[in-house]
């Protein structure tokens, strides 16, 4: 492609609303342009990178038996009502009505559509297993779109769904898809981890996220410093053992704690450590009040609470709800004397505590010397807190460390969550009707592009991996008005294209500095400069990533490029 014939609008200044490297560089290098908050157009270079990522995804999905389809973005509300998600998915679901006042949603995900298709088309175990996938735009009304392509309102996604007659078949497909995803992200050159995760609004139990390690990641990964264990912070199990503390035997005593609202405030006021205080937080789980207790130096993990209760919806109680159930506001809550209508859950760490300091459900008042089972009872002890750095790794190997990550993929074992609610049944080997067992597998294609840009850049611009770059070679004629340079550049363009290289020829009438700056911004793997020595048949070859430079005779150029790309492909 000749640069004069395509659209690559580079920018010299960093856009004021771009906070992270990938967003800044994709804008500056002319890969994308913003049309509205969280909505982007992919310009020619951006589209080519998307196609490269899509091609890798398709190859790996096809290799594990995936079959590509295309489903509608516009989805009828009745399917979401059938699954039960129309009222629970949340404000991120973009809803609308047509001229006949029929309700629709713009597809944030496609479980309902694919389940209804399979329900209508497959009715025997003999047709299973089956894995169907698509690459399509998704829509989510993000409250705060940010970080460019990493959190947008419209984005490109590969979503796949597998259907099975038994759990063993699902397990097999899940492992195959896990390997396929690892291959995809490895081929994209990414430094990533597969981590245990929560399924969120999708549903299901067993699942993993694929996280690209990055300082700007919005998710925290807990990983072992001595093994392959890794989990989303919300899902990392706590296996720490606590030293048992003895209770003094003293009676629970009421103490004034005026204007002390936080654990830190109360600890300082009473001259105690935070781990001697019980933190009490009220949640509403499936419309029922639940008081959750953790040690004062720990944080409640809402996902673990939800799983412990097997709740569909869980939310932090409002001030009004807190007053209704506990006759107090947050900051002075505690488990003593609460109504039997309020279920009490406690983190495992409380079992080892001695004299407890708890809120008295009265503003500015706490109890000291409280004791479990004497002064209050707990319905259930569970792991309900977030893991901390330095805690033992759940697999028993090493200690936990934290890292930030960008989620680019997520795989779920859905089970029968959707097939049961939507009537997607098959006849098994014995002629009995039973729901299909499902798996769900998603990759953020546009997010993957941004994650690659986030990991592959330097102070001058992007540094694309070989198999992801929009073009292999950037041929630059320093002076297109020079007849020899112009002729040599055209000859090389034709020669290298014939050799099946993807070539971008900078044939613009611009200053050399502008061309080199743009070339560094765009970040193609290899640059070939046709300059003053063109008359001698010599060109300059520069590797973008390493900065290595070679002067090469035209006749030896193809051999040299073969060596360079062989080395780059092995990195």
From TrEMBL:
Keywords: Aminoacyl-tRNA synthetase, ATP-binding, Cytoplasm, Ligase, Nucleotide-binding, Protein biosynthesis. GO terms for molecular function: aminoacyl-tRNA deacylase activity; ATP binding; catalytic activity, acting on a protein; proline-tRNA ligase activity; transferase activity. It is found in: Cytoplasm. Its EC number is 6.1.1.15. It holds the Pfam family HGTP_anticodon. PROSITE patterns: AA_TRNA_LIGASE_II (PS50862). It catalyses: tRNA(Pro) + L-proline + ATP = L-prolyl-tRNA(Pro) + AMP + diphosphate. It comes from the Bacteria. Residues 38-465 form the Aminoacyl-transfer RNA synthetases class-II family profile domain. One of its GO terms (biological process) is prolyl-tRNA aminoacylation. GO terms for cellular component: cytosol. Consists of three domains: the N-terminal catalytic domain, the editing domain and the C-terminal anticodon-binding domain. Homodimer. NCBIfam families: PRK09194.1, proS_fam_II. Catalyzes the attachment of proline to tRNA(Pro) in a two-step reaction: proline is first activated by ATP to form Pro-AMP and then transferred to the acceptor end of tRNA(Pro). As ProRS can inadvertently accommodate and process non-cognate amino acids such as alanine and cysteine, to avoid such errors it has two additional distinct editing activities against alanine. One activity is designated as 'pretransfer' editing and involves the tRNA(Pro)-independent hydrolysis of activated Ala-AMP. Belongs to the class-II aminoacyl-tRNA synthetase family. ProS type 1 subfamily. This is Proline--tRNA ligase.
């Amino acid at each position: 492609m000749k640069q004069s014939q395509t659209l690559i609008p580079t920018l010299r200044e960093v856009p004021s609303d771009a906070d992270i490297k990938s967003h800044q560089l994709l804008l500056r290098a002319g890969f994308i342009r913003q049309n509205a908050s969280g909505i982007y157009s992919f310009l020619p270079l951006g589209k080519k990178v998307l196609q490269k990522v899509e091609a890798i995804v398709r190859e790996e999905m096809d290799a594990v038996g995936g079959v590509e389809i295309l489903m509608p973005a516009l989805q009828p509300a009745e399917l979401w009502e059938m699954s039960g998600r129309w009222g629970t998915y949340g404000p991120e679901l973009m809803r609308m009505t047509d001229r006949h006042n029929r309700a629709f949603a713009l597809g944030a995900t496609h479980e309902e559509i694919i389940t209804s298709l399979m329900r209508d088309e497959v009715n025997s175990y003999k047709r299973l297993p089956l894995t169907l996938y698509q690459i399509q735009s998704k829509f989510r009304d993000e409250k705060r779109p940010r970080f460019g392509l990493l959190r947008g309102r419209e984005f490109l996604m590969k979503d796949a769904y597998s259907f099975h007659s038994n759990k063993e078949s699902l397990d097999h497909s899940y492992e195959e898809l896990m390997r396929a995803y690892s291959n995809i992200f490895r081929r994209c050159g990414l430094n990533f981890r597969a981590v245990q995760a929560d399924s969120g609004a999708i549903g299901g139990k067993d699942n993993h996220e694929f996280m690209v390690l990055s300082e700007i990641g919005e998710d925290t990964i807990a990983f072992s410093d001595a093994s392959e264990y890794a989990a989303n912070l919300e899902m990392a199990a706590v296996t720490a053992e606590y030293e048992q503390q003895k209770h003094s035997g003293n009676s629970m005593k009421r103490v004034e704690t005026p204007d002390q609202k936080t654990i830190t405030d109360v600890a300082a006021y009473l001259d105690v450590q935070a781990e001697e205080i019980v933190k009490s937080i009220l949640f509403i789980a499936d419309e029922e009040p639940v008081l959750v207790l953790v040690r004062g130096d720990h944080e409640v993990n809402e996902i673990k609470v939800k799983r412990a209760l097997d709740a569909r919806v869980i939310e932090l109680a409002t001030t009004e709800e807190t007053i209704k159930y506990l006759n107090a506001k947050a900051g002075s809550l505690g488990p003593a004397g609460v109504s039997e209508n309020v279920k009490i859950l406690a983190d495992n760490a409380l079992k080892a505590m001695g004299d407890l300091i708890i809120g008295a459900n009265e503003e500015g008042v706490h109890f000291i010397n409280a004791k479990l089972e004497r002064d209050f009872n707990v319905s259930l002890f569970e792991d309900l807190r977030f893991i901390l750095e330095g805690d033992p790794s759940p697999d028993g190997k090493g200690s936990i460390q934290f890292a930030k990550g960008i989620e680019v993929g997520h795989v779920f074992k859905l089970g029968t969550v959707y097939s049961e609610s939507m009537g997607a049944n098959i006849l098994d080997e014995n002629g009995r009707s039973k729901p299909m067992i499902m798996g769900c597998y998603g990759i953020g294609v546009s997010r993957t592009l941004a994650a690659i840009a986030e990991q592959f850049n330097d102070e001058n611009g992007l540094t694309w991996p070989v198999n992801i770059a929009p073009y292999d070679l950037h041929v630059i004629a320093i002076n297109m008005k020079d007849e020899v340079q112009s002729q040599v550049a055209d000859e090389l363009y034709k020669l290298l294209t014939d050799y099946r290289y993807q070539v971008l020829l900078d044939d613009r009438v611009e200053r050399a500095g502008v061309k080199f700056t743009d070339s560094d911004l765009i970040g193609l793997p290899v640059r070939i400069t046709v300059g003053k020595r063109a008359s001698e048949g010599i060109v300059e070859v520069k590797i973008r990533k390493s900065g290595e430079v070679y002067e090469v005779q035209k006749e030896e150029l193809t051999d040299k490029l073969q060596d360079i790309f062989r080395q780059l492909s092995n990195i």
